[in-house]
Design goal:
By secondary structure, this protein is an alpha+beta fold. The protein has a domain of 131 residues: Metallo-beta-lactamase, Chain A (4-Layer Sandwich). 41% of the residues lie in helices and 19% in strands. Strands 1-2-3-4-5-6 form a six-stranded mixed β-sheet, with no helix packed on it. α1 links the parallel β4 and β5. The protein is elongated. Bound molecules: zinc ion (ZN).
């Protein structure tokens, strides 16, 4: 577990922020290690978890909330998703929890429902971004991850959200997967997302009849080449390619096909 400002504790796939009388959980994660780390902290300090932000509703970010709710039945969950009703956070909202200002910022794009939020702590120039920031390597031309492309569902919103957070005064970016990044990581994510869009445009322009899955594969291979990602064949056979990588690629293919058909 890593510590920032002696206030923020980052475990495998969630973070815990220490206030004077309680803790604030940001994402709940799904790993047993995260549960163990955070329960130990609450026991050592004799402080409960009082609030929990959930950045979006993917399983790996919310699974442990059931466990934490059993341990702390009065926990207040703050998220952007209510079954069957409108999204709560349509614009930024600031709230004081303990001595800290937390600003909830809607940042749609990654999840299919558009319910993603970031949680900003302005005094610490720190932001929790859930799954928004996915650089997949230290530079655009270098990857060190299982895929060279970020996972998102709504391409236009995703780019817009990345630009919005990049425009803010921030030093530390904490993901829902235990990574602590600098702004560079957001820049790499944005560059990749924009390259996916631009190559999709070219691909559809060249062949407007191209099948979605074939176009997606073509774009994926180009990005892989540009980013010096070498496990292309392996990734294409991975179920996560269809579940994650292909979503963003097909979003852009469909969008440019639609545009092309409207211009006919
Ligand atoms: Zn996610």
């Amino acid at each position: 577990m890593r510590k920032l400002f002696n206030k923020i504790f980052v475990s495998e796939d969630a973070s815990l922020v220490r206030e004077k009388d309680f803790f604030v959980l940001v994402d709940a994660g799904c790993e047993p290690k995260t549960r163990g780390d955070f329960m130990r902290l609450t026991r050592q300090t004799k402080k409960p978890i009082k609030y929990a932000f959930l950045t979006h509703h993917h399983w790996d970010h919310v699974h442990n909330i059931t466990y934490f709710r059993e341990k702390f039945p009065r926990i207040v969950v703050i998220s952007n998703h209510k079954l069957g009703s409108l999204m709560k956070f349509r614009q930024e909202e600031s709230m004081a929890l303990g001595d800290t200002e937390y600003v909830v910022i809607p940042t749609p794009g990654h999840s299919p429902k558009g319910d993603d939020i970031c949680v900003h702590m302005p005094e610490k120039k720190t932001i929790f971004v859930g799954d928004l920031c996915q650089p997949q390597g230290p530079f655009y031309h270098r990857t060190d991850f299982a895929t060279p492309v970020p996972y998102f569902h709504l391409g236009e919103e995703y780019i817009h959200s990345l630009k919005k957070i990049l425009g803010m005064k921030i030093n530390h970016i904490i993901t829902g997967h235990g990574m602590i990044f600098r702004k560079k990581a957001l820049e790499i994510t944005l560059e990749t997302a924009e390259r996916m869009r631009d190559i999709a445009k070219e691909t559809v322009k060249k062949n407007p009849e191209v099948k979605n899955s074939l176009a997606a594969k073509t774009i994926f291979e180009r990005i892989a080449q540009e980013r010096n990602f070498h496990n292309v064949q392996h990734r294409l056979k991975d179920p996560y390619y269809h579940e994650c990588d292909e979503q963003g690629l097909i979003y852009w293919v469909k969008k440019f096909k639609k545009e092309a058909s409207q211009h006919e």
